[in-house]
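Hey team,

Filing this mostly as a record. A colleague (T.K.) asked me to run one chain through the structure pipeline before their review meeting, and I want the input and output archived in the tracker in case anyone asks later how it was produced. No errors, nothing strange. Just documentation.

Input sequence:
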Amino acid sequence: MDHGICIAWYNLPDKSRDAYLEWLHGSYIPKQLERPGITWAAHYASETNVKLSGAKGRLSNVKDNSVPTGDRYILLLGGDDAHAFARPTQHEYHAQLPAADRKMLAMRLGERVNVMAEEARVHGPAATQPPEKIALSPCIQIGSFNTGDQDDDDVMAWYAQWRMPCMEKLPGCVRVRKYASVSGWAKHAILYEFTSVEARNDNFLEHERPHPEQEAWSDKVVRKLVHAPGSPNLARRIWPA
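Output structure:
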């Protein structure tokens, strides 16, 4: 079981980045994995100059200054369910850490956190791992968003009837997981796993082109979503190596 997820997006200062990463990968993550109910961890660095599918300018990001803007690093923790991150909460867990650990955590800039519950999952052609191997792939694309004035039923139907079934056939796709929020700014998240950034770029960007009627549905849905700062993120895994 890994039906819960905790996602932290943040930035880091250049001068202390290496020390932070050594601590995170060597100390913080192993301690998190000892907590009851937490099943896996993965850490990613976001790519720059990311090409997105669909018409240019159709995607919008939130313009609320109260929403933290970090997005260069993404730490994901999988849990049995969302309540794995409630006994204790991440805030409570961090508060009881030693001062040295809290000093490292304070290096995170513009941190934004969501705890979410899995809504649905599909596997792509590249899903060669056994089902119990549930840690994330070398490349992810993750979108986090609110529905704005979009009908929630239409968003749910679009993922269930079109986008996720497409990914079951897309070369280079390992899995897609759709999440609904329990805690945090974004109401929704969509997590795509690919074998590599290159496989994503080669196959994902044009997957709707042969289906103009579905491409039009996608355009209608996506234009009404309000994404978190920097979303969607395309990212390479930096832990585990």
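Quick notes for T.K.: The first helix runs from residue 17 to 33. The chain has one domain: 4-48+55-239.
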